[in-house]
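Researcher: Please generate the 3D structure of the following complex. Treat every line as part of one assembly.
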Amino acid sequence: MITFLSGGTGTLALIRGSRQILHDSDIAVVASTAGDSWVSGSHAAPDIDAAIFLFAGILDTGRWWGIRGDTYATHNYLPKVAGGEPFPVGDRARAVQIARTNLLRRGMTLTEAVQAQCRALSIGATVLPATDTEAGVLVDTGTERLPLFEYWTCAAADTEVRELIPATREPPVTDAVRVVIEASDAVIIGPDNPARGILSILDCAGMRDLLSDRFVVAVSPFSGDVAPDPKDAALMYAVGEKPTSYGVFRLYRDAVDVFVQDLHDPDEIPGSLRLETHLLHDRQAESLAWDIMAVIRHAVS
Amino acid sequence: MITFLSGGTGTPKLLRGMLDLLEERDIAVIVNTAEDIWLSGNHLSPDVDTVMYLVAGVLNTDRWWGIRDDTYITHDLLARLGIEEFIAVGDRDRAVHVARGEMLRGGMRLTEATKALCERLGVRATVLPMTDSPVTTYVKMRQGEMHFQEYWVKHRGALAIEGVVRRSREPPVATPEVIAAIEASDAVVIGPSNPVTSISPILECAGVREALRRHRRVIAVSPFIGDAPVSGPAAALMRASGREPSSAGTYGLYEDFVDIFIQDIRDPVEIEGALRLDTLMVYRGKSLDLAKSIVTLIYGY
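Model: Done. Output below.
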C-alpha cells in the first residue's frame, strides 16, 4: 500500500500516473481539508472530491477540480435570483456536496461520509480526509477573510495574503488515517504547494509522529525555471518561506526521507534526488511514478 | 389594488387570468408558507415559488410548480448517490432555494428575501409570505405526523390521515406588510385554494382574520363541486380536520368575514346568497372569464 498526501493539483497528477503502475486497491489518499468551506448550504471539500472524482474517472483534469463535462444550471441562474457563489459549483458536483452534507447531518463523521461516497461511486482506492474536525483555512487578505479555495480559484492574482488562519489548530488525525499510514510501505507527498493543503495535513496532531515511522518521499512543486504563480508565491510567503524548492524542503525536512527536485532546479539541496518532475502530460506523471516506486522498493525491501 | 390569499394551485389559476386583466402592480398576493421546508441545505417555499414563477412567466403550468424547461441534473445524481429528495427540484429552481437559503441564513426576513427574489425575476406584483416565522402543516396518521409536502408530493396524498395540525415554535403573526396590503386593497379575493392547508394557515396568522372582518369587500371562491375538490387533496384534509368537504364546509371557515361567496354553477350544494360562476379553470380562457367576473363585481364595470 502506498499513501499519498494530497492538497492541490500536483499530487493528483502524480496519482494519475501511479495508477498505471499500482492497483487502485493499493492506493490510499489522505486529502487536505484546508480548502473545505460551506457553500450554498452544503459542504464543499474540493481536495477530497478531486481525489474521489479522479478514481471515479470523472475529474476535470483541465483544472484538477470538479467534474469533467459538468453543467452549471444552478450556478448560472443564481445571479438572476439575487444569489451568487464564490466559485462555480457544477450541478453534479453540487449533488455530491449535498449528499455528503446529508450524511454529515445524519451524524456521520466526515471520514464515514467520504467512505460512503467512495462506495456509492465504486472506487477501489481509499480516500480519507486528514481530519474529521472542521479545519478549513481562511486567507486574511488585509481587507477580508476568504476561504482558501475561493482565494485560489477566484481572487485576483495580486491579492495580498497576510496570514492563513485554520478553523482549528492541530486538529487530530483520524484513526482511519493512522491505520492506512501504518499499513503503507511508503508515503508520497506530491508536487503540491505545501501552503495550499499539505501543511494542513502535516499539522494534524499525531501526523508527523506517524510519518516518522514511515518512508516518506516528497516532490518539490517548484523547479526554478519559471517564475512561480503569484498565488503560489503569496501562499508560500504567508507561511514564512520563499516559493522555491529550498523553501519547501525547510517545511518538510523533519518528515521526509527523500526529497525530490527537478533535474534543472538551480536550488542546491544536499541529499535531494534529481528527477524530471514536470507533469504536463500523463506520460511524465507515469515516468515520475516509476522512478519514485523504484526508490521506495529499494529503500523498504 | 386587489389582494389575493393564495396556496399553490387554485388561486394561482385565478391569478393567471388576473394577470391578463390587471396592471401587475395592482396585484398583491399573500401566500401560505406552512408548507415551507429546508431541503438539501436550502429553503423551499412551494407556494411562494409557484406564485412568483407564475407572475415572472417561468412557471411550469403543466403541474403548477417548478420552472418551465428546467433541468434535473443535481436531483438525478443525488438519487444515484442514495439521496431521495421527495420533490423533484430542478437546477434553476434549486438556485432560487439556494439564494433564499443564503439570505435567511444571513438573517433576512422571509418577506425581504421574497422581495429580493421578485425584483430579480422582474415580478412587479407584490408577493408576501403570510408570516416571517416558521410554521408547518403536518398531517396526523396512526404512525405519527408527516410534513404536508411529504404527504402530498412524495406519497401523492395516498395515505390514511386522521387530522391536520400546525406546528410552530411561536404563534405565527401576520407581517405588517400583509396587514397593510389588506387594508390598502379595494377587495380581498380568496381563490379556490385548499381551505385547510392553503388558506387556513394564512387566516391563523394573528391579525389576518381581524383585518378581513374590518374589510368590506372580501370575496371567496369555493374549491369544491359537490364533495369533490376541483383539484388537490382538499376532501381528505377537510374531513380529517372535522369539516364537511364541500362548499358548505368551506363557507363555514370563511363566513365571519366573507362578503361574497362564489360557488361553481355545477355545485349541488346550496348556500344562501352565494354567487354562481363557472370556477373550473381548465384552461387560460376560463381563468380569464372568472377573473373578469370577479373584477366586475369589485369595480362594477
